[in-house]
Amino acid sequence: MKINPFKLERYFAIYEFTAKYLLSPSDCESLPMEQLLKGADEESLKLWKDLKLGYTESRGHPILREEITKLYHNINVDDVITIVPEEGIFIAMNAILEEGDHVIVVDPIYQSLSEIPKSLGCSVTNWTVKLKDHRWSLDIDFLEKSICEKTKMIIVNFPHNPTGYLPTKEEFSKIIEIAKKHDLYLFSDEMYWLLEHREGEGLPSAGDTYEKGISLFGLSKTFSLPGLRLGWLVTQDKALMDKIANFKDYTTICGSASSEVLGIMALRQKETILKKNRERILDNKASAKDFFKRYNELFTWIEPRGGSIAFPKLSEKIKVVEFCDRVVKDKSIMILPGETFDYDGNHFRIGLGRENFKQILKELEAYIIEEIKNYY
Ligand SMILES: Cc1ncc(COP(=O)(O)O)c(C=O)c1O
């Protein structure tokens, strides 16, 4: 299998643990272990205390899968398999796609969602999220027009990384209707699920509502626990679930025993964790909006509607790659250029989920005041 380097991950690999400030991470502030244990219920504390670090059940700990089903309406324990989130993309694509298949993928996109189909010999149509009246939007008619005889799957990611775009519930059900009408798989990367910014705007999960839907979710973003490397796929398609389980025997075989128990604890503290993350995102979003509007000669702010990231635009006077390069070299602030998503607009990603977001904006502001005027 030949696969291109993952541009975003390579960029993070250079700066994530060397830059002093990270303005672009997509996860929410990581939970300290102590806090997770402090909020844990008696049963999971006992599971933790009695834990033996052996191999685990390949599809995931039954209690963990039981907890996961509570996030959905029509999903039972057999419709869930635990994986590392990135592994879930790899396995699902490999289990479903074959050389010559055609897929339609939201664009820009977390690279593996389009790269893995390409590496398997599929043709890919990009379904581009565009700016319309200062808002991100997707043309649903384009989706239907792009379907051909060889189309096997539609690949979406809402709330969207990197724009924070979120379709309305009506738009999302149209996407499902189209998938259904043409008997297509719908792979729905829901890694930022439950982080919708307005109450009531959350989407249903594709795996929960459509028999050929496959949903990816996990603890890395919404639950502040990327270090557990714990996610899951849900689908009601039993034959597909078996194929996915067979494939997992060639990747990780089973999950980490300690992560499973910590995952049970986290899911049982869902309300507390989510409330804190949503509040922090909304607070940081308000600061970001103020900041980018204050420097509107340099930046255009585009409001995200969900998730923990936004994708503002930099003035065309400066190339975004050069801007990000200078800021990290001069100020040790890492900013992710849109180029890492193969996006040719002059945009960059910012992360709204971290505690030090406002402090980093202050550092960036000082830099802009001192330096950026010299660019003109
Ligand atoms: C849309 C999307 N899907 C999947 C992943 C992979 O998640 P993880 O890094 O926890 O494997 C990410 C991570 O950034 C993501 O943004």
From TrEMBL:
Domain Aminotransferase class I/classII large: 54-352
Any matching Pfam family: Aminotran_1_2
SUPFAM superfamilies from the UniProt entry: PLP-dependent transferases
Entry keyword Metal-binding: no
InterPro entries membership: Aminotransferase_I/II_large (IPR004839), NHTrfase_class1_PyrdxlP-BS (IPR004838), PyrdxlP-dep_Trfase (IPR015424), PyrdxlP-dep_Trfase_major (IPR015421), PyrdxlP-dep_Trfase_small (IPR015422)
Enzyme class (EC, first level): transferase
Keywords, alphabetical: Aminotransferase, Transferase
Names of the cofactor(s): pyridoxal 5'-phosphate
Domain of life: Bacteria
PROSITE patterns: AA_TRANSFER_CLASS_1 (PS00105)
UniProt entry tagged with the keyword Isomerase: no
One MF term in the entry's GO annotations: transaminase activity
EC id: 2.6.1.-
Family: Belongs to the class-I pyridoxal-phosphate-dependent aminotransferase family.
Protein name stated in the entry: Aminotransferase
Organism from which the protein derives: Natronincola ferrireducens
Phylogenetic lineage: Bacteria, Bacillati, Bacillota, Clostridia, Peptostreptococcales
